[in-house]
Backbone:
């Protein structure tokens, strides 16, 4: 099953930072609100810088 979630600042929380450099970020995040309807899920957020633009990719942990 594939999905493309939208990252909202209020619904995501950084759990762990693996790498944070000038052109690359690798983090474990949790998304959701912690309710019965919207539980927390853990994802890996990888961001790569291309000139002035950051490209974000989400994957399972």
Residues:
């Amino acid at each position: 099953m594939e999905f493309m979630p939208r990252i909202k600042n209020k619904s995501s929380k950084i759990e762990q930072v693996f790498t944070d450099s000038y052109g690359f970020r690798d983090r474990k995040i949790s998304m959701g609100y912690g309710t019965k309807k919207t539980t927390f899920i853990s994802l890996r957020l990888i961001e790569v810088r291309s000139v002035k633009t950051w490209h974000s990719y989400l994957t399972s942990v």
